[in-house]
Amino acid sequence: MPDELAAHIFERGVSGSGSTGLGLALARALIDSDGGRLELSTARPPTFTVFLPVPRAADVRGVRWPAERGPR
Asked: 22-34 pLDDT, tens per residue?
């Protein structure tokens, strides 16, 4: 990935391979909507990192904590 493209890789319409340039913009928007983050970790080779929040068991409805022991 060229250095000048790395700063804009998540913008709609930006593509280094002649595609539509929507995939990474859409992926970032979906991850952002869940409170996460998508980052370009390295430009060569292009490597991405996804950070997603992990809810606490107490914050999830219907989850008993500590979990019940036994088969489900």
From this structure: 999 999 999 999 9
Going by the DSSP 8-state scheme, the letter that residue 31 receives in this structure is H
Task: Give me the residue spans of the domains in the chain.
Answer: 3-59
Residue 8 contacts residue 14 (beta carbons within 8 Å): yes
Query: What pLDDT is stored for residue 69 in this prediction?
Result: 73
Looking at residue 57, its pLDDT comes to 75
Q: Please give the backbone phi and psi of residue 41, each rounded to the nearest 5 degrees, phi first.
A: -80, -50
Query: Which residue type sits at 68?
Result: E
Residue 63 is which amino acid?
V
- Say how far apart CA 50 and CA 72 lie, in whole Å: 31
Strand positions, DSSP E, the chain = 37-42, 47-51
